[in-house]
Every structure is written in structure tokens, then in C-alpha cells.
Amino acid sequence: METMKQIAVVMILLNISYGQFSRSQSVDIDEPHTYTPPKHYFQTSSFDEAELEDDAAKNPLDRGPYFDISASRNVTALVGNTAYLNCRVRNLGNRTVSWIRHRDLHLLTVGKATYTSDQRYQSVHNPQLDDWSLKVLYPQQRDSGVYECQISTTPPVGYSMMLSVVEPITTVIGGPDLYIDTGSTVNLTCIVRHLPEPPPLIQWTHNEQEINYDSPRGGVSVITEKGDITTSYLLIQRAKSTDSGKYTCLPSTANPMTVNVHVLNGEHPAAIQGSKGLHGSTVLTLVLMVLLIVAFPVR
Predict the structure, then answer these.
(1) What would the mean pLDDT of 81-109 be, rounded to a whole number?
(2) CA 136, CA 85: separation in Å to the nearest integer?
């Protein structure tokens, strides 16, 4: 009986010792995982400061090539006038710049070399500004579309631009013929559309002679309103027969447009047109009669 008590005491002592050992082991294992440093530790550690210094050193000099996107992505050019798509690349290093046409994924230029049979496409490099421009000679409306400036990184990175080639349209309202009563005011309105910027100058001519607004005739003036659509008004007061003739609107950066002005002395335009129609009909009748006589001669 005494022996059993001794065995029980030994087992209790062993359990207590094992529990203390287990507790000490769990503290050693769990403590590092459950410990959370103060928030300021991450802000002031020397490791984080060194990492920030490395990032500062890499920006921008060591960040690799990148695009300067301050310029507009949209370029508008006139038909036949050289167009430039400007691509500004920073930190190019030993990489190359290429231009690709999105419509058919055609490679146009690589570096300074042209890689297409269409020699209208050329690469222009300005090392002072880090510019790699695509020059398009004699652009046509079919050349409109998206073009991509691409850097030969791995993978390549690109910057897309939209080229719009427009043909300006000049119209004179009411043309090609205008009929004005004697003594009334002639108001010729010339409208110019599809220009990237308003034309610097719009001239008017009368029978191919530039109009002199300070002439003794007087009463002739012009008003021009410039904008996305430019409009020029030629006003001629107290119209008379000598004001009849061909008037041409001549924008400096667009096609001219001509209108014929007829100053009438009480004659109605329909009568003029009718007389012209009658004259044409008479000529046709005479031609038919001659043909009949030749085909069926009188015997």
C-alpha cells in the first residue's frame, strides 16, 4: 500500500514537470508569431528608409523608358500638307522606337529607318527634346486612323495617337447663281469647314480682280467670323448692273468657291432661265431637222 502511494506521488510530479515544459515550449514557438510591433516601427526602421532611398534613386533616371504624355493624342492635318505625329520618350537608353499603323498592323519605321515601301512615312528624331516623330508626306483622307509609337522593351510598350486627315470645304450659300434686284443689298456668305484652325485670310474677288473696299463706288464691306467654322460675309449695298459678274471667295488655306451674281432690272429670273431653255430647245430642233434632211433627201 505504501508502494502505491509513492508511485502516485511520482506520477503527479512527472505531470507537473511535463506541463511546465510544454508551457515553456509553446511560449518559445508562439511568441514570435503573435507579437505585433508598434505601428511606428515600420515608419522608422532603417530597412524601410533604405528602400525608399532606392526608389528615389530609380525615379526617374533608373525607371526605364517611358512616354511623356503631356502632348495631345489627336492630330489633325490637311490633305496634301505634311503631318507630324510627335512621340516623346524619356530614358530610352539602348532601346529603339518604332511606329505601327493599327489599320493593318503595318510596321512603318524602326529607329530612323523606314520599313515600308510607302516612302511618305519617315522617322524624325530630335535628341534635344527626346522626340521620335512620324512624318507623313502628302497625307490623304485614307491615311486617317490610329498610329502607335512603340518602345522595344520586353514586353513592348506603346502610345497610340489618332491622325485625322481632312479636306476643307468652301461653300457660298445660294450658289452657283444668285439673282438680285437693282438697288437691293447683295449678301454673299462664304463658309469654310474642316480646318484644324481658322484661315488667316479670306479674300473676295469680282471678275478675278481683288475687291477694293475703299473704292469710290462705296457701300462694299466684308465681315469675317473665325472659329471651328469660319464665315465671311461680303455686303454690297445699292446693287447695280455693273455689280453683276463672278464673285470668288478665296480662303488662304482652303479651296476657293465661285458664285455668279445677276443684278436684274425688273426682269424675273424665271424669264432668264426660260429664255436660255428656249434657246437650247431651238438649237436641238434645228439639229434634228438637218439630220432628217440628210437621212431622207427630197427627190
Answers:
(1) 92
(2) 8
Report the mean per-residue pLDDT for the chain.
76
Helix or strand holding residue 12 (H, E): helix 2-34
Handedness of CA 136, 142, 146, 150 (dihedral sign): negative
Look at 178 and 36; give whichever has higher pLDDT. 178
Pick from 168, 176, 174: nearest CA to 187: 174
Q: Read off the C-alpha cell for 70.
A: 503631356
Q: What is the DSSP letter of 152?
A: -
CA distance 286 to 280: 10
Query: What is the rounded CA–CA span in Å between residue 101 and residue 123?
Result: 13
| Cell numbers standing for residue 72 | 495631345
Would you give the distance in Å from CA 15 to the centre of its chain? 85
Give CA–CA dist 202/231, Å, rounded. Answer: 9
Q: How far is CA 107 from the centre of its chain?
A: 21
Return d(Cα 45, Cα 50) in angstroms, integer: 9
pTM more than 0.90:
no
Cα distances from 100 to residues 86, 110, 122, 138, 153, in angstroms, run 13, 9, 12, 18, 15
